[in-house]
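[User] Once you have settled down, look closely at the record that follows, and write a paragraph about the fold.
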Amino acid sequence: MQHRIHRIICLAAVAALGACSGATRQHEVAVNETRTADGRAVQVEPGATPEWGEKRGELLRTFAFRALERDLLEEGRQYLAQACEADPNDGVSHAALARLYLAEGDPQAALVYAQRASAASPEDPEVSMVYAAALAETNQPEEATLQLENAWEAVATDPEFARSILLHYAALGETDRAQDFVTHCMIENPERAGTWAAAGDLMLAQGDLEGAVEGYRRALEIDPTISTPESMDDLIGRSRSSEDPMLASARAAEAHAKWNEAENLYRFLASNGRTSHAAQLGLARCLDAQQRFAECEIQLARVPYGVRGWRGHLLQARLDVREQRWPAARAALMLALQERPGLRSAQLLLEFVEAQPAPAAPEKD
């Protein structure tokens, strides 16, 4: 299970990293051009200036993110690889390429680029999370734990990351450690909505619905906008009656199998930050229906486990089954059944998953 959890913790939208790259009008400049202080485009030969590699890498990274925003995965990967070659110290490009390889199920390639990203940006929590994902995917859970704990020190105020740390411990089967983490958060930051949301997640994972309801209610009292599982709305008294009309239209199009129309609406909502989790889940479902599984996995990775609901967990399980990630599929199915007990499709898929042979342990050098 730790592999899938780490993938979800760390595979944030690759395109979102583009904001960190300072995308400007430079994307209109040819790769072999730079600009003078007065804005004139000037042709520059490789190696002509000490800053050439960095400038060329920045341009290539901008092209990569724009390609990925349009779901041109192969083009984006090629630009990122060139950016990494142009500037070995570009932690952003190395981390983004590692994320992309993780989403495509190539953890060994991801680990190479994640290690380089960590070497270039050892204090960056985003890089630490990517490195942790790659370590977990290559059966190095203890090293992954260390990376996540280092990242936590830098982003301890992030409510979603607190929930991700909790899921990491749960994925390793370290229930006592998960409980200790939540207790520590309660002692240190009882006024934060994220603390109570994490407590709700822990209670839900343990099958304690009453405790989960209390945790989510307290979180919503502090921050009414914090994410909670839609399947818990009735129990916690959360109303979503004021649904975005565009989201309602997207769901209607999806219900009538109008995949292109629904995809466009969901993508617009997700890109504009409106009802982002619901839009990202809907977009993932549409991509899955069109058998665009790599894109589906990238979109689903943007949604925290705690707010996916049973449909999101079931979708994750199907993706894991396609890639024969049996422990991860089992974990997702168990979460789906916790939120929707007796769900027949999940029960049947779980029976199939549990009949698969256990993966062989990797050889030690």
